[in-house]
Q: What sequence folds into this?
C-alpha cells in the first residue's frame, strides 16, 4: 500500500492567546480545518470551541474529535489514528501553539511515519520560537530544555549548568515553568546567575499584555515583573 | 525617554517557498507591513519583491529598505536602527522564514532591547520548527546546532556526539547544511550513525515538492533521496 491510498496527517497550530486568531492563524489552516472530519486534540472542549470560532458553517457535532494526551497508551494511539490508514485525512491540534512541540501530538506524527503516512505541517505560532526571535540571542545555536527540575537544589544546578553552556558554546538556553510557579523560577534565576548574564522574559506572547524584555540579571534585579500565571518563556545568554 | 516615545520593532516572517504566501503569512503580518515605512532586510531585492507581491497599493520606491546582514558592523547597526529611537516603527524581514533565527535580524533585536524599544514578533513559518513538529521526535527537549563543521573528520565527530546526546538525554538533535552539500551530509550521516538511530529529513517545507520523512538509518540506506540544492532540515533521535 502506498501513500496515495492513505490519508494525510495535518499539524494545525492554534492561537497562543485569546482573541489572537487573525494574528496567528493562516488562511491555509482555516481552509484545511474546513475540509477535515477527523481531529486528534489535547483537549476536546477547547478544540471544538476553536473550530466553532472559525465560523466555517459546519456542524461541530458531525466532526470527530479524539483526545490524544501524554497518558494515551500506545495501542490507543494506534486505534485513534486508524482513519489515516483507511484513507481519511486527520488534523492534530495542540491546546495552544504548534502540535508536536512540548505536546502529545508527536505520538500521532510518529504513528504516521511508521505507517508511511504523509505528514503536513502548517505554519503557525510557537511561543518558544517567537520568544527566541524576540530575544536578540543566538539563533544559530540554541537548546530548549522544557521544564526545569522542581527540587530547589537541582534547579539551581540546572540554571548554573545552562549558564555555563551559554558561555562555553555561545548557545541560547530556553526553558519554561508551569505559569503559577513563574515568580519562584524568576527569583531563583536572579539569585543563581551572574549579574552580567542576559535574561529574556517573554510573557503572554501575541496577547494584549505581551511583554518581551532582554536585560542583564543585574537590571532584572532592579525591576522584577509579576509573571504569576502568565504563560512565559525564559531565555539565558551570555 | 520611555517606550511610548519610541518606535516598535516588528519581526516579520516571510514565506519559505515560492507561491507559499497564503500558506504561511498571516493577515496581521500583511496589515503590519502595510503601515510600515522602514524595513531592515537581509536582501533588499527579495524584500521589495515580497512587499510588492502583497499588492498593498503602496509605492515601493517610497519605502525605506536598509540591508542588515551578518557583516554589518555594530556602528552601522546603530545608524540604520536610528528611526526607532526617533519614534518610527520598523520591520525586520529575513530572506526566508523568521527573522532573528539563523539570520542577522538578531542584531536589530538586540539594539532594540538595549534602547528600551518594544519588540513585537509576528507569527510565521520557521523551517526548523515545522521540521521539528513533523519529525515525531521529542519536542520537550531539543537542540539546534546550525551548520555542522565542513571538515570531514570534525563533521563525523559532531554526528557521533549528537547521536550520543540523543541517546543520553532523549534530546532531538537538529542541524542543517548549505543546500548544495546536502547529499554529502546525508551520505556522512548514513555512514556514521547507528542503523537503529532515527533520522528525519524535511525538505522544501511548504513548497510543492515538500518531503518530510522519519525512518531509521537502516531504512534510509535502502532509499537515499536526492536532496541536492533543496533547502533541508535534518533531525536525529534515538
A:
Amino acid at each position: 500500500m502506498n501513500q496515495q491510498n492513505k490519508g494525510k496527517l495535518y499539524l494545525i497550530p492554534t492561537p497562543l492567546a485569546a482573541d489572537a486568531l487573525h494574528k496567528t492563524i493562516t488562511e491555509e489552516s482555516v481552509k484545511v480545518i474546513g475540509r477535515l472530519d477527523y481531529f486528534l486534540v489535547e483537549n476536546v472542549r477547547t478544540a471544538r470551541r476553536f473550530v466553532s470560532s472559525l465560523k466555517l458553517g459546519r456542524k461541530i457535532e458531525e466532526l470527530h474529535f479524539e483526545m490524544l494526551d501524554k497518558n494515551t497508551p500506545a495501542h490507543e494511539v494506534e486505534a485513534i489514528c486508524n482513519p489515516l490508514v483507511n484513507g481519511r485525512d486527520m488534523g492534530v491540534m495542540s491546546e495552544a501553539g504548534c502540535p508536536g512541540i512540548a505536546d502529545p501530538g508527536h505520538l500521532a506524527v510518529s504513528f504516521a511515519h511508521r505507517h508511511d503516512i504523509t505528514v503536513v505541517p502548517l505554519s503557525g505560532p510557537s511561543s518558544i520560537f517567537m520568544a527566541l526571535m524576540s530575544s536578540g540571542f543566538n539563533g544559530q545555536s540554541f537548546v530548549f530544555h522544557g521544564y526545569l527540575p522542581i527540587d530547589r537544589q537541582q534547579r539551581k544546578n540546572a540554571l548554573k549548568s545552562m549558564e555555563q553552556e551559554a558561555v562555553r558554546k555561545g548557545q541560547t538556553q530556553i526553558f519554561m515553568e508551569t505559569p503559577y510557579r513563574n515568580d519562584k523560577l524568576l527569583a531563583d534565576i536572579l539569585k543563581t546567575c551572574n549579574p552580567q548574564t542576559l535574561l529574556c522574559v517573554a510573557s503572554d506572547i501575541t496577547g494584549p499584555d505581551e511583554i518581551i524584555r532582554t536585560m542583564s540579571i543585574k537590571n532584572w534585579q532592579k525591576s522584577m515583573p509579576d509573571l504569576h500565571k502568565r504563560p512565559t518563556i525564559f531565555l539565558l545568554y551570555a
User: Anything to note?
Assistant: Chain A touches chain B through 60 residues (CB under 8 Å). Chain A has a mean pLDDT of 94. The longest strand of chain A covers residues 142-147. The two ends of chain A are 52 Å apart (CA to CA).
